[in-house]
């Protein structure tokens, strides 16, 4: 590859492992990652702000289209704002559970025990709002397009969730639909659109989660050897 002097490259070096070491590392990491669960019952136990900043910056290491990093993470601990978001979210959720969702969708949700009440927004010490940025605004007022925005922001959210798990905390991906009320409540600019609302914190005492199984290897892998 011919290098562009106006856009320099730097050497990249990282650890490498034997086949046996890779097998052990990949197996242990999978087994650890497989203990991650979405949790809906949170403790109000405080989590240091610096921890949350590190988790978000880990999310921001995700790859993105043309390295545009088309995301913003809003980090919320203000109780009044959290209560406002809960009120608005539950308003939309009542509409969804009361008629916007199909019978099939509602039946699929039954094993998860979800409903329109979202008290975790009030209880969790932190609410993280992930916003996607379809475009950037130039100084002259023109727009500069971002690329593969949904894919990029989804990757960043995934990295963030695994960082939360690594810190010994729990999270939940909440998607009240439509989510326009979030951008308005936070007074975000027009080029930012809500993508996920994620409460983060410690699990409540004696918390329980649905007894679910993830798909097996045979269900998620198709081989072309």
Question: Can you describe this structure?
Answer:
By secondary structure, this protein is α+β, with helices and mostly antiparallel strands. The chain has a single domain, classed as 3-Layer(aba) Sandwich (NADH Oxidase), CATH 3.40.109.10. Helices cover about 40% and strands about 15% of the residues. It contains eight helices and six strands. It has helices at about 20-35, 50-60, 80-100, 105-110, 120-125, 150-165, 180-185, 215-220, and strands at about 70-75, 125-130, 135, 145, 170, 195-200. The strands form two sheets. The protein has a four-stranded antiparallel sheet with strand order 1-2-6-5. The chain has a two-stranded antiparallel ribbon with strand order 3-4. Strand 3 (about 135) and strand 4 (about 145) form a beta hairpin.
Task: Outline the secondary-structure elements.
Layout: H1 19-33, H2 49-59, E1 71-76, H3 79-100, H4 103-109, H5 120-123, E2 126-132, E3 135-137, E4 143-145, H6 149-166, E5 170-171, H7 180-186, E6 193-201, H8 217-220
Antiparallel strand pairs: 1-2, 2-6, 3-4, 5-6
């Amino acid at each position: 590859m011919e290098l562009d002097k106006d856009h320099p490259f730097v050497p990249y070096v990282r650890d490498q492992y034997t086949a046996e070491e890779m097998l052990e590392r990949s197996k242990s990491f999978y087994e650890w990652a497989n203990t991650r669960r979405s949790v809906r019952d949170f403790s109000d136990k405080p989590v240091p702000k610096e921890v949350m900043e590190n988790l978000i910056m880990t999310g921001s290491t995700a790859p993105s289209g043309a390295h545009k990093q088309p995301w913003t993470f809003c980090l919320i601990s203000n109780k009044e704002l959290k209560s406002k978001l809960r009120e608005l979210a539950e308003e939309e959720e009542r509409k969804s559970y009361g008629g916007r969702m199909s019978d099939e969708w509602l039946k699929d949700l039954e094993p998860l025990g979800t409903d329109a009440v979202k008290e975790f927004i009030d209880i969790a010490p932190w609410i993280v709002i992930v916003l996607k940025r379809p475009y950037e605004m130039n100084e002259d007022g023109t727009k500069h397009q971002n690329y593969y925005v949904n894919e990029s922001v989804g990757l960043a959210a995934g990295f963030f969730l695994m960082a939360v798990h690594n810190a010994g905390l729990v999270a939940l991906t909440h998607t009240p639909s439509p989510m326009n009320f979030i951008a308005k409540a936070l007074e975000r600019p027009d080029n930012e659109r809500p993508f996920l609302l994620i409460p983060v914190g410690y699990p409540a005492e004696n918390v329980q989660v649905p007894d679910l199984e993830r798909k097996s290897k045979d269900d998620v892998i198709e081989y072309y050897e």
